[in-house]
Automatic annotation (TrEMBL):
NCBIfam families: yjdL_sub1_fam (TIGR00924). PANTHER family: PROTON-DEPENDENT OLIGOPEPTIDE FAMILY TRANSPORT PROTEIN (PTHR23517:SF15), RESISTANCE PROTEIN MDTM, PUTATIVE-RELATED-RELATED (PTHR23517). InterPro entries: Dipep/tripep_permease (IPR005279), MFS_dom (IPR020846), MFS_trans_sf (IPR036259), MFS_Transporters (IPR050171), POT_fam (IPR000109), PTR2_symporter_CS (IPR018456). PROSITE patterns: MFS, PTR2_2. It comes from Microbacterium aurum. GO terms for cellular component: plasma membrane. It comes from the Bacteria. It is a multi-pass membrane protein. One of its GO terms (molecular function) is peptide transmembrane transporter activity. Belongs to the major facilitator superfamily. Proton-dependent oligopeptide transporter (POT/PTR) (TC 2.A.17) family. GO terms for biological process: oligopeptide transport. This is MFS transporter.
């Protein structure tokens, strides 16, 4: 199947969706509802795991519960490999996006209806697989809407990121209300309803996407299908055996995911760099992506502690009293999306206004790591306080800094992955960026097991200073990184 230029060309001329291609609205919508369900569920997941049975939870040890959440988050982004591979070799990005949305909805239904650990296991596996498939492909589909030199690309990805955070804002608010008033399973059920709405909306709009979104760049020969099916079946059997024999356990899940993601990332870089299907410029750009990948890992290992350490901190230490009413713990997870909604348009306007004069991608990544490290240092004035000792405005301010760091890296990372991607590995290069998120998220779960509320200064100061150092090192090597990126900024 030959590649058609219709998608990027039409997208380049279309400005009906806030100056962006109209087709962006369809991907914007499904991603918004998927994030509503994802963050709505994740906002109550950790406390569901460690709350006692009398509180409606499962009563797991707090550190183990934090590790499970980190491992689950890492598995979500690890599964982008599977979705990206199927998109690039078998179905195309758009079809995988649609099927993934169905799997996500099934996962949330399992969490809502199936009891205890069984429901958690089935639900989280389905949501992780489905979310991974949707994330890599949605980003790739957005990339097909723009010509390679379209100056609106970063602004378009920032607008797409706004859709993500509209859902991320509303999800924890509403699931938190249902959890606190009716119970955890009602909150999980609302997440399922949100994903169903997203699936319904997308099913009507998907035909308007360009043919480019359904293109299979590197089709798998039919004769290799049986081999791939056999490998997949063997992988499932191995995982089941490891669980049954106690090698994979609840208390070591985050470490297992770290090892798996590290191996997958090394293998992925090796496969792409050694491929005969890429030319010298494409190979150089992949090498240029490596320092961005490592900086991204450092960034996400701190940022994703919003769902581990910050959740525990909010439950135990944050003053959540609002005029005599106690705010649900999950509402803290909606603070960051509020700032994203406000600031994403600001950042998009800044990048559009600056055009070719805007900072290069390595500079944005370096600054993101520095700002993220500074956010962790802002916890220090409140370290060692008692129950309800941290004012809500302090967390609001810290999460504002989180947001500035995120907008310097996350939408920019999605954009640069599509620009640096070799032709034969288009969606899989996006998955490689998500592998950095996966590794950072899994590390955040492992780090959360080290968090000691009675001695917080070493934790926040050491992690903050390490992130700042990573950012400074990248800024010192901006010029050689740009040379490797071969004209991509």
């Amino acid at each position: 199947m030959a590649r058609t230029p219709a998608g990027p060309a039409q997208g380049d001329r279309d400005t009906r969706f806030f100056g962006q291609p109209w087709a962006l609205a369809h991907v914007f919508g499904v991603e918004m509802w998927e994030r509503f369900s994802f963050y709505g569920m994740q906002g109550i997941l950790l406390i569901y795991l460690y709350y006692s049975a009398t509180q409606g939870g499962l009563g797991i040890e707090q550190s183990v519960a934090a590790g499970i959440v980190g491992a689950y988050g890492g598995a979500v982004y690890l599964s982008t490999i599977l979705g990206a591979w199927i998109a690039d070799r078998i179905l195309g990005a758009e079809r995988v996006l649609f099927l993934s949305a169905i799997v996500i909805m099934a996962g949330h239904i399992a969490l809502a209806l199936l009891p205890g650990f069984f429901g958690v296991g089935v639900g989280l596996v389905l949501v992780a697989i489905g979310s991974g498939g949707l994330k890599a492909t949605a980003t790739s589909v957005v990339g097909t809407l723009y010509a390679p030199d379209d100056a609106r690309r970063d602004a378009g990805f920032s607008l797409f990121y706004l859709g993500i955070n509209l859902g991320a804002f509303a999800g924890p608010l509403l699931t938190g209300l249902l959890q606190s008033s009716l119970g955890f399973h009602w909150g999980f059920g609302l997440a399922a309803v949100g994903m169903a709405l997203g699936l319904l909306q997308y099913s009507f709009g998907r035909k308007a996407l360009p043919d480019e979104a359904r293109h299979v760049p590197n089709p798998l020969p039919r004769g290799r299908y049986p081999l791939m099916i056999g490998i997949a079946a063997a992988g499932v059997v191995v995982i089941v055996l490891l669980v049954l024999t106690g090698v994979i356990r609840a208390d070591n899940l985050s470490l297992i995911v770290i090892i798996a993601v590290t191996g997958a990332a090394i293998a992925y870089f090796a496969v792409i760099l050694s491929s005969r299907r890429i030319d010298s410029d494409e190979r150089s750009r992949v090498w240029g992506f490596l320092p961005l990948f490592l900086t991204s890992v450092a960034f996400w290992s701190l940022y994703q502690q919003q769902f581990t350490v910050l959740t525990v901190y909010s439950d135990k230490r944050l003053n959540r009293d609002l005029f005599g009413w106690e705010m649900p713990v999950s509402w803290v997870n909606s603070i960051n999306p509020i700032f994203i909604i406000i600031l994403s348009g600001v950042f998009a306007a800044i990048w559009t206004k600056l055009g070719s004069r805007q900072p290069s991608t390595p500079v944005k990544f370096g600054l993101a790591a520095i700002v993220m490290g500074a956010a962790f240092l802002l916890f220090l004035p409140f370290a060692g306080g008692g129950e309800n000792s941290t004012p809500l405005l302090a967390i609001v301010g810290i999460l504002f800094v989180f947001t500035v760091a995120e907008l310097l890296l996350s939408p920019v990372g999605l954009s640069v992955a599509t620009k640096l991607a070799p032709e034969a590995f288009h969606t899989q290069m996006v998955a490689l960026f998500f592998l950095s998120v996966s590794l950072g998220t899994a590390i955040s779960g492992q780090l959360a097991t080290l968090y000691n509320p009675g001695d917080e200064v070493p934790y926040f100061s050491s992690l903050g200073l390490i992130a700042i150092a990573v950012g400074v090192v990248l800024l010192l090597f901006v010029k050689p990184v740009l040379r490797l990126m071969r004209g991509v900024r």
